[in-house]
Fold each of these.
Amino acid sequence: MLLFGIATSVENFHEKLPRATLRLLEGQQFDAAQSEEILEKVFWKTIDDPDIALRIGSDLGQMLMDTQRDHVQSVAVFINSIKYAYMSHCFANRLSVFLKNDLQFDEVTKEDMEALRNLPSFRERCEGLLEAKDIKLLRKLLNSDRDLYDYAREQVTLGRKTLHNIITGITAFQTAHTLVPKTARIPSSALYVKAMSGGLDGSPMLRELLLSIKRVSSDVLAEILDELRDSQVDLPECERIQQELVELITSAGDSKAPFRSEHDVRNETLRTTVVSQKVELSKQKATLSKNDAAYSKLLNEFHGIMQAFFTDKLVSPKGLFLHEVFIYDMRAPHRATFGPKTRYAIERALSSPHDYLNCECCDVRGNKGADGTLSASYPSTAILYQLYLESGSLINVSDLWSAFQAILSDDHEDEGTLIALFQRGLAELNLLGMIKGSRKKTDHIAKMAWKGL
């Protein structure tokens, strides 16, 4: 049921996408800018849902976005990679059962509890309890499966809420950053990767946003407060700030000019003084009007609220207890599936066909037969490939045929069959780009690739 629920949530998230995304999935072409915008929307839809039990980690998220941009893959491939991440976690990690909302203690095995106790985050929590001298709780977690089950269920629920708070913090950041003038656009995926790695709080981009907020005018602040309210960011203090701002604007009467902050560069002047025949420049704040002073006070209060909000929400997910259960951050399965090493697989198949054919006729001890020669039971292309590896940059076709005939002559008495197998093997090596005809010598072929290079 857990696997079905996660698969259903991933399957249905693209139903909320705009029509442009659906047209792209149907095969219509878009330019690079539109594709990037649609990709960001798809990525955000995969994480902007409080009911999602599993989150993509920072390393895997960065790899998925880089692969998508570098190889210009379709959005459908990106959706499949997200699905594969969920499936990998559910099939490969038995602790994913703790993501089930109605999980009962009888459904958990003793092996599951021992797997919990071997997690790195569990060991860190035990060390923390030991330093805090909370020996009673530590003994319960180590000795009682029931106590560990109850504690794990509580902590997994708490961890999922913390991850949702991180998403809320990213939403608030993106909302404010979009409305602040003269700021470069930051993709939502980059913010998510930064936040999931624990590096968004205190980062230069966050400090720059907070400094920019202190300089915005009253009309920009009103837009930010409206957008934060519409995006359902939990900031009850902002409602009071918004009401006071409306009252301040109303009290100004017919004045259409927005209020300026004391940190606005237009409220600063340069003062020139001459000391010992040297000119010195110093900044000096201009005298603020009554309304601008009141607005500056209100803006500083909003700045403090946003700073405290980001500090509270943007915590490091890797420090959460049992984060291995509700965060999937393994890149190796995705590299093997969506970025396979095609050449390595082909070379291995030709060198060790038994690994793929799983037949009894091929010698499993290596590429050679029992007497140290090539095995005649190998496919003709594999035999030619072994002879190919032992040759130089130019290969005499007549010598190659003689060696091939000597290996297979005992199993095939018909020379016509041998010639057909030989020609087919050469054609397949040519198709793989390993050989080509040589212009230097008509009876030779040129070697195009070396194993492992």
Amino acid sequence: MTIMLKIYNSLNNKKEIFRPRKSKQADMFVCGITPYDSPHIGNFRVAINYDVMARYLRHCGYNVFYLQNVTDIDDKIIKASREKNIPWQELTEYYFKEHLEVSRRLNIKSISKYAKATKHIKEIIAQIKTLMKKGYAYEKNGSVYFEVGKFKDYGKLSRQNLAKLHKSTRLEEDANKKHPYDFVLWKAAKQDEPFWRSPWGDGRPGWHIEDTAITERFFGAQYDIHGGATELKFPHHEAEIAQAESSSGKKPFVKYWPHAGLLMVNGEKMSKSLGNFITGKEMVEKYGADNFRFMIISSHYRSIINYTENSIAQAKINLGKIRNGADMIKKMKNKTGKNISVGKFEKKFTLAMDDDFNTPAAISAIFEMMNYFNQLNPKIEISVESAKKALAFLKKAENIFGVSFTASRVAKIPEHIIKLAREREKRRQENNWAEADKIREEMLQEGYAIKDLKKGFEITTRE
């Protein structure tokens, strides 16, 4: 097992050696979707990041229980249900199924359990009762609120000073509150809204309480990793800490808080009003699941990603280069070939992943290996054993990243691609390598790779 794996912790803004609470057991929770509309590429950016995280933890020998909630009752859901004139249950089920289908296509499969808020009303009510009993919550007109002033550590994750706290769009105007920064745990039912019975009257859970009630149900009062987008630090994750630590009396609620960065579109925050809202379904259908996934892991999970047409095109080219390299290695092997060590590249890959899941640096190690083999080809052949080790390294990497590197297929090639390949072959014969490389890049951008053979060439397409 890797013992030097370091994870960035937003709680103290430091990388810390990962030491889970229960030896080889790693409990991990990530905030899930609110299924009121088609999930967008920002949702899937976060999902891919934590999928890779869970995959690597398992690769390192940890038994990972990866829990994700589904906020299947919410103001946005009620509003969308009315606008579309369909029952809220039907609405949430439709978009949750869409989320699952796109996740399947994106090879997001590390989640152990999806937990819907409406399936855990009993646990939510129980945690609210505990908070009221301990004096951290109060009831007013059928709604229940958390009294932020009673929790002295409020703001420790986002480094907010309660006395100087700026107003947030997430702070609701509510005359029932003792203080504007108090937040709702239980919302009293309004006319024609979904509701559940409670000791305080009919109503439904607030946004924050579902997460802590759900994680307490599956993990207990404390656990190892809490993920989510960086914009959830305040007020959502701050509220979770306040609820959980006030309820249980145990600190810290979570040991490690590795937050994922924003996904921008052409330099702007994604928004329907700006016309730059892209659904996950649209993305995988237009550009392919592997290309989008590779684009995401080509940046560090904590960094801001600016999605553009160029960035997805470059990801497609880079992924094609790795796959082309894998094909090259398969064809270089020979029983009498040279023994080549790939250990140094694999070590660089592991060191990168151990350094807070540094996927760009890990990908760089793969390209280093590819460049090394490129320098050898076609001058020498490598041993069968060396080829096996190189391909095993790529297979390990693809299992961690969730992107296929070693699979390719020969398909019916369009005539214009064949013409490009012939033109490239002509440039090669003329030793015009710059023009030949330019044509190769053009083919890669259209999803086709070319392999030079002793006589002629071979074209493959991948997706």
